[in-house]
Design a protein that fits this description.
Radius of gyration of chain A: 18 Å
Oligomer: homodimer
Strand content of chain A: 15-25%
Largest interface: A-B, 34 and 34 residues
CATH topology of one domain in chain A: Jelly Rolls
CATH superfamily of one domain in chain A: Jelly Rolls
Order of helices and strands of chain A: HHEEEEEEHEEHHHHHH
Strand order of the largest sheet of chain A: 1-8-3-6
Number of helices of chain A: 9
CATH class of one domain in chain A: Mainly Beta
DNA sequence: CGAAAATTTGACATGACTCAACTGGAGTGG
DNA sequence: CCACTCCAGTTGAGTCATGTCAAATTTTCG
């Protein structure tokens, strides 16, 4: 719980009492590597703050190929927003890539906190805002970079993830096949 | 101004007085087709609500090729968030694709409204939240669809934009060359 | 240790790009 | 209102980036 508290405090100013109530609305959950936090088509009734470990959010193409859309490690969030907000079946699946501890919050509690506490409203706004910036930049990359450039960008910006995440998942995140990523890695760097 | 008022009202409940103050912080501006609202490297001191017309937000690759990241038509927003929030030089350029009327708001005024009025805070949160959903889905598309599938998706979801926006700009948004888009269009639909 | 999964390697296929030439419309100036 | 230019769109030939498939090799983990 401490990590969440710190994360919120780092973004907004919030009273101790409010923070206490906020905390009370989260539940700690544990997932083993490869377990699912959410499955495509299931109901997306909670979102997750990752305390330790790592999860991937992915879609499954019609040919059955999986495409990683987001990796969430410690101090970041994971969830199927689309389904969560519109109470619609999940479009994404979320799976633990390591043994992972999350703080889970239900839709009702989330809505409650957002409505009752401006500090929490502000916090969630900042989360979304940061996501928008990151996602726009990711799209810009996909439009303007080649596969190799995207890989090098990833290397430079997330060197820690390279260590932790299987190559096939990174390939999927970059939008290329594992075979092609393998080939890129073994090319001389120019 | 009326469109902005309606848009805000459609998303959050807000008092008439607050709305009046909100309105007072916006300035109407007019741009002719091809004029720039913001240029790469310039200072991103305002964001724009599009009342009429259409603008594109794009990046310029090192080879000089432009890549459209967002189209904003009536009742939607445009702006370089990255630069706006971090007071950094603009990463994107924003250009009118038609004669366009926008309501512009400065960083100071935006911050003021967000800090003083929870209703405006809530409104801006919803804007970001919707953007996150749309952007994630766009990334998912880029990962799992071929160029042709992306084009057909665009056709189905934004038939009105097809009418208004030059093909070369749509090609750029889809991440393909104008020549290739032209070829796709002339293929038999399967 | 042994089975299953991840990564590598290579031959071949193809989607998408480049470049260059051509066509046709939209805007402009005389 | 015509003639002209210029830009958007098309077409086609040749090429390159990336994907597919299949087999070999390495790593992971029970």
């Amino acid at each position: 719980m401490e990590k969440l508290v710190q994360h919120i405090k780092s973004q907004v100013s919030i009273s101790a009492e409010t923070m206490k109530i906020v905390q009370s609305r989260f539940t700690e959950k544990h997932y083993k590597k490869k377990e699912y936090l959410l499955r495509f088509g299931g109901s997306s009734t909670e979102v997750f703050f990752v305390s330790t470990g790592c999860v991937r959010t992915y879609i499954t193409g019609f040919n059955g190929v999986e495409h990683n859309v987001v990796f969430s490690v410690e101090n970041w969030w994971a969830g199927d927003l689309q389904g969560f907000i519109h109470k619609a079946p999940a479009t994404y699946s979320i799976q633990a890539l390591e043994n992972t501890t999350v703080l889970s919050i239900s839709q009702e509690n989330w809505t409650f906190l957002v409505n009752e506490f401006p500090a929490f409203l502000a916090y969630s706004r900042i989360l979304f805002r940061n996501s928008v910036i990151a996602l726009e930049s990711r799209i810009a990359q996909h439009l303007s970079f080649t596969a190799k450039e995207r890989y090098q960008y990833f290397l430079n910006h997330y060197p820690n993830l390279i260590q932790r995440i299987a190559q096939k998942h990174i390939a999927s995140y970059l939008g290329i096949t594992p075979e092609f990523l393998s080939m890129l890695r073994n090319q001389k760097m120019e």
